[in-house]
Amino acid sequence: MLNVLQAAQTLDGLTYQEDYILNSRGLKLFTCKWLPKDKEPKALIFICHGYAMECSITMNSTAIRLAKAGFAIYGIDYEGHGKSDGLQGYITSFDSVVDDCSNHFTAISERKENKGKMRYLLGESMGGAVALLLHRKKPDYWDGAVLVAPMCKIAEDVKPSPIVVHILTKLCNFIPTWKIIPTQDIIDIAFKVPEIRHQIRTNPYCYKGRPRLNTGHELLKISLDLEQRLGEVSLPFIILHGEADRVTDMSVSEQLHEKASSWDKSLKRYPEMWHGLLYGETVENIDIVFADIIAWLEERCDLGNSRIEKQLKTESDLQTK
User: Fold this and answer.
1) Which residues form the signal peptide (predicted)?
2) Which residue, 24, 50, 165, 263, shows the most beta carbons closer than 10 Å to its own?
3) Are 87 and 238 in contact (CB under 8 A)?
């Protein structure tokens, strides 16, 4: 990937920076980062935003909270999302989305100044699916994941009937970009606070309208795949899910917690909270969610980096042979 533009600004105790990079398909992708000012970050956190969302505005409050807690935060807008190239709201291939994130996040992790730092993924909704697939791609690379209402299964409330799904799947071959998937307005059922719904609707970088055909097909295909392979998840993780979520299915988050082979796994359920836990709830509820996230991250940072220790031991063993 090639860096093509850079802009930076200083926030209260933080440094915020924007970049554009070129991916392997020649598309310009928007990236950004929030860093604690004048101190070494406790760990690296890579944020994976949800469907139709973006990083620099909708995930800004999330990144600032985590950066103020001492973490370095890195984000990327997927192809067809936010400020990145591509038809807005259109996912050509979920594999390409995962590859773009993997290439960018790995490049950051492998920088000299980051070699010894722990690496965490934070995925919201569809971003939770991205995080799980990043782990599948490199099972031993990440130190943990924060999964916020992860898209391991699309809730029945927003999923078309099986007959409609069959017809739409066939149509994908002919009109993949058309916005004809019948579904509820996701913004209305995902975010509890009306002001947040208004902010998202007036954000030009958030996609509005019905899902495009191939996008819906890719989301359904990958959620079915994840649901069938929950036992392959082996990294430390915490799942956070609102009990009143009507977008992603909390029962599959419970199955992920039960079936994952991870030795370190946690599940937090929030009564009466909706899908948008990070910025769509009341301030009091958001405070509760972030207290849980930060406590989980700091506890694991305090335990030390077992991945680095294992890597150093392997290198030492190789040198003595």
Assistant:
1) none
2) 50
3) no
Distance between CA 143 and CA 312 in Å, rounded?
15
Quick: pLDDT tens for 275-310. 999 999 999 999 999 999 999 999 999 887 665 555
98: exposed, middle or buried (Cβ count in 10 Å: 0-12, 13-18, 19+): buried
The percent of the chain in helix, strand and coil, each rounded to the nearest 5, is: 40, 20, 40
pTM: 0.91
Catalytic sites, residue numbers = 125, 245, 275
* DSSP labels, 87-103: STT--S-HHHHHHHHHH
Question: Which among 184, 132, 130, 135 is positioned nearest to 155, based on CA atoms?
Answer: 184
Look over the chain and give the mean of its residue pLDDT values, rounded to a whole number. Answer: 90
Cα–Cα dist 7/189, whole Å: 35
Angle at 154 (CA atoms; ends 150, 157), nearest 5 degrees:
125
d(CA 88, CA 186): 16
